[in-house]
Design a protein that fits this description.
Largest sheet: 7 strands, mixed
Order of helices and strands: EEHEEHEHEHEH
Number of helices: 5
CATH topology: Rossmann fold
Strand content: 15-25%
Mean pLDDT: 89
Structural class: alpha/beta
Helix content: 25-40%
Distance between the termini: 23 Å
Number of domains: 1
Oligomer: single chain
Amino acid sequence: MKIKSAQFVVSNTRVEKCPQEPLPEYAFIGRSNVGKSSLINTLTQRKGLAKTSGRPGKTQLINHFKINENWFLVDLPGYGYARVSKKEKKTFQKYITDYFLKRQQLVNAFVLIDIRHEPQKIDLEFMEWLGGKGIPFSIVFTKADKLKPVVIETQVASYLNALTSGVWEEAPPHFVTSSQSGLGRETLLNYIDNINRSIRQNPV
């Protein structure tokens, strides 16, 4: 897929105020400091589309970006160790949960995982929640440029084993990416493109 246009549309905290257009949406979410904004900018090839910051937890709203005039990329607040109050975290949790449970346009969630770390309980629990609610999701491993190929394979295998040894019969689709090198960009965009084509050919 070639990205011909990418534009910011709206930020909000209420799913009712999200765009009303019946376009497929792909939500990106992960722990704070996982490299989400950098990945979004790499995917769209727009440097400043998503705001990057050295301070974890910068994204605090539901951000909609319209891509190629025919689908939405949705940037959701990170979870984990963002430097915000407990009250703010509870607020984030509510509108993130509302988005996943109520947003009919949502087609797939991409859960971002820092490939350098061992499987984290908070990530596994979040994916278990998505699965329990019947929300389709894929795993996007980030920061692959920080590791050697053989270590990447080991880390991915470790994570997929952690999933399949628990509640999952088989692991969800996964992608290995690097915002620095562009690794995985085409594969991820083609995955989205294939889903969009399938939706157009088989409308509900």
